[in-house]
Amino acid sequence: MPPAAAARCPLLWRAPAALGGALSRPGMARRRVAASAGGGGRAPAYGGLLLDAGGTLLQVARPVAETYSSIGRRYGVTKPEKGIMEGFKRAFSAPWPKTLRYQGDGRPFWRIVVAEATNCTDDDYFEEVYQHYAHGDAWCLPAGADTTLRELKDAGVKLAVVSNFDTRLRKLLKDLNVSDMFDAIVVSSEVGYEKPAPEIFNIALDQIGVEASKAVHVGDDETADKAGANAIGLECWLWGDDVKTFSEIRDRILTTDNSQ
Q: What InterPro entries does this protein map onto (predicted)?
């Protein structure tokens, strides 16, 4: 994961929560199809939607550097927030010697990142930060995400999370009341592959029973998400670039016009 992307996620940085309403696209049909053939609508433009987690579906409820600094004061952390950000960039630019960054609960990797970012190696500090981000109230969904997921599911679109993440992810999705929306949740620390590896995308597609040519992936990383998905013939929309809101994702999938 490149530093620019890492800077937006905890225990990676992640972008501030959700941008505003759906963008208009002149000349593009926006009328959503009916959920069933009985309603006279056409089938969705895609049979499956794969979503990245951190930085796409999951956004931090409070700026990460601010959180690290605030918690760190009790442990003697005096590094300014700008310095914490720079430390994260260095940590994520450094090569990782093992196959997976996120092995099991991810603690070995995160200890290195937190120490580099804050210059603090206190175990109690690390645990407090780690546990903070293990609970759903440290996160939020982008505006309209839950409604969009429900509408897509009702329209017959298969949904999957495909994420480079540690074992906390399933609980976070449950805490945010969206885990039951997904037909598959594929986590790198569980399956042994990290994006952009084709295997992790193929596992998700197999679990939802949709071919790559009939699905779309949405994520925020040019290499891990876009290049990885495109390598197996899976279309990818970059979050914050190709699509900026979940209502826009919905409208591009549930449309009477397949033109993008």
A: HAD-like_sf, HAD-SF_hydro_IA, HAD-SF_hydro_IA_REG-2-like, HAD-SF_hydro_IA_REG-2-like_cap, HAD_sf
Closest Cα to residue 72, out of 116, 119, 106? 119
252: left (phi over 0), alpha (psi -120 to 50) or beta: alpha
DSSP secondary structure string for all residues of 219-235: ES-IIIIIIHHHTTT-E
pLDDT band at 167 (very low <50, low <70, confident <90, very high): very high
pTM over 0.90: no
Neighbour-count burial of 71, counting CB atoms closer than 10 A to its CB (0-12 exposed, 13-18 middle, 19+ buried) = middle
Q: Phi and psi for 83 in degrees, rounded to 5?
A: -65, -35
The backbone torsions φ and ψ at residue 60, rounded to the nearest 5 degrees and listed phi first, read -75, 145
Instruction: Tally DSSP H helices, then E strands, for the chain.
Output: 11, 7
The reported pLDDT for the residue numbered 94 is: 81
Which residues, including other chains, have CB under 8 Å from residue 110's CB and lie 6 or more apart? 11, 126, 130, 166
In this predicted model, what pLDDT tens digit does every residue of 183-198 receive, in sequence order? 999 999 999 999 999 9
User: What token pair was written down for 144?
Assistant: 């309209």
Q: How many angstroms separate the CA atoms of 210 and 150, rounded?
A: 19
Which pair of tokens denotes residue 22? 């759906």
What's the rounded Cα separation, in Å, for the pair 126 and 112?
Answer: 10
Tokens encoding 34? 């009916």
Residue 206 pLDDT greater than 80, yes or no: yes
Question: If you ran DSSP here, which 8-state letter would residue 82 be given?
Answer: H
3-state secondary structure 129-184: HHHHCCCHHHEECCCCHHHHHHHHHHCCCEEEEEECCCCCHHHHHHHCCCHHHCCE
Backbone angles phi, psi at 256, to 5 degrees: -80, -5
Contact criterion met (CB below 8 Å) for 67 and 10? yes
